[in-house]
Write a structure and sequence with these properties.
The protein is of the alpha/beta class. The chain folds into two domains: 209 residues, TIM Barrel; 66 residues. It is 38% helix and 15% strand. Strands 1, 4, 5, 6, 9 and 12 form a six-stranded parallel β-sheet that branches. Strands 2-3 form a two-stranded parallel ribbon. A hairpin with a 2-residue loop joins strand 7 and strand 8. Helix 3 packs parallel to helix 5 and helix 7 packs antiparallel against helix 8. The radius of gyration is 20 Å and the shape is globular.
């Protein structure tokens, strides 16, 4: 039996995300209490993917919202809130209004942002920002989380040999697959990108790294992401703001300073070259505890961005730095009953 390394970065991310399931899109009384508690009345929401229920499979990474639910959320936002573009954030940051303003964001640059989310955003006239990791439209970005999910789903058990450790996972039922998927994703999240690449290659190289029980055929995940033609089309949409999400989807905190600057500046320059527009907004990959800090905030500011967003869930105040803005994640675990429950202050990080 394997000696499994105890790593918990994903638990930190999920803990942050779990705080964000208490939304109200209808009760003005509760909304006003939220606004007063915040000291400012702007809320930034974070999405990743939007898909029909029939296309959502094994979403162990908790990234997808069902299309029907997404439309319900956007419809309610348009009715009860003031949908606001990130371009106008600074204008309204210190201004109060009777209804809170909502800013919609999407991370990574999935093609379903265009095929499924955009028509709904246009239907209800709700603006959004899409943050793009430029290695994905280049067609050479690692999407290790989806590859892990496929490996876990395709096997009954696996044994990974990596750095003189053996990691055994039984995958005989759905719950074991979920547990193993989270543990393996944890392993990746605890590593820098070089170690991630070695681990991914070890998993792929089944004849050397895995027992006879594991089968794996490498798949390309490029089709999940926007290509450059689609990015250019989106950049011309009046409701859409294009933002940068680094070139590769690395843990920025583990990069040397020079590599970090290159990762961020390259994504900005590449997007500007491809779209012909100024890229002024940035989202930190992963963006929470252990993934971003003072160094990253300062570099993003020095590189000429106007705002940058995290995955932290805390009170957005008028004094909050534009380079560490909090967001509230909406995932497939969003419970529609919470539309009537509100976001109680105890779920906010101080």
């Amino acid at each position: 039996m394997a000696n499994i390394v105890n790593v918990d970065p994903l638990k930190k991310i999920l803990k942050q995300y779990s705080k964000n399931l208490f939304w109200v899109f209808g009760s003005n009384k509760i909304i006003n209490k939220i606004a007063n508690f915040q000291k400012t009345n702007i809320l930034i929401l974070m999405y990743h993917r939007v898909l029909p229920k029939s296309e959502i499979k094994n979403d162990y990474a908790y990234l997808t919202v069902e299309l029907e639910r997404f439309e319900k959320q956007i419809k309610n936002i348009s009715q009860y809130y003031l949908p606001t573009s990130l371009k106008d954030f600074e204008k309204f940051k210190s201004h109060s209004s009777k209804r809170p303003r909502i800013i919609i964001t999407f991370d990574d640059g999935y093609v379903d942002n265009m095929t499924y989310a955009l028509p709904i955003l246009k239907k209800y006239n709700v603006p959004a920002t899409i943050y793009i990791s430029t290695s994905y439209p280049d067609g050479n970005g690692d999407v290790w989380w989806y590859e892990i999910i496929d490996i876990v789903n395709d096997n009954q058990e696996i044994c990974i040999i990596f750095d003189n450790h053996q990691y055994y996972f039984s995958l005989k039922n759905h719950q074991e697959k979920i547990d193993a998927g989270i543990k393996i994703i944890n392993m990746f999240l605890s590593m820098d990108h070089i170690a991630q690449s070695r681990l991914l290659n070890a998993i792929r190289n089944s004849d050397k790294s895995l027992t006879k029980y594991c089968k794996h055929k490498y798949r390309s995940y490029n089709s999940l992401f926007l290509n450059w033609d689609e990015v250019r089309i989106l950049s011309k949409e009046p409701l859409i703001t294009i933002g940068a999400h680094a070139h590769n989807h690395y843990n920025l905190s583990k990069l040397d300073r020079d590599v970090l600057i290159k990762e961020i500046s390259h994504s900005k320059c590449r997007l500007e070259k491809e779209t012909g527009i100024s890229i002024e907004h940035f989202a930190y990959p992963f963006g929470g505890d252990g993934f971003v800090g003072k160094r990253e905030y300062e570099i993003v500011k020095q590189l000429g961005f106007k705002t940058s967003v995290t995955t932290y869930s805390y009170k957005l105040k008028t004094t909050t730095s534009n380079f560490q803005l909090p967001r509230y994640a909406i995932s497939r675990f969003f419970d529609e009953r919470n539309l009537e429950r509100g976001l109680h202050p105890k779920f906010w990080k101080n």
